[in-house]
Amino acid sequence: MLVKEVLSELPTATKPVVRRFEQEEGSHVLAIGLNKDVILKGHKSDIPARILVIKGRITYIAGEKKMNLALFDEHIIPIGEYHSVEPQEDSIFLVIKK
Length: 98
What we know:
mainly beta, 49% strand, single chain, 8% helix, 1 helix
């Protein structure tokens, strides 16, 4: 139901909508929803991570590198890479860290 919660909040969200699935030792999964007008500001991960788009389209930005990701596209986030995410439309993606 977590993804449905994110989906229901997207139309009026003014910041990223984040829900965490149950966490197992050493890993966790986040569902992140971005209203088409909301940017996930720059940050980095200190553990291996992967993005999987499950609704919409996003642009992953790391420095001068921009990567467009659409439904079911994945991208591995290098450890320590400073990056941001901009939605092209209302979007939801999973961040899988382990």
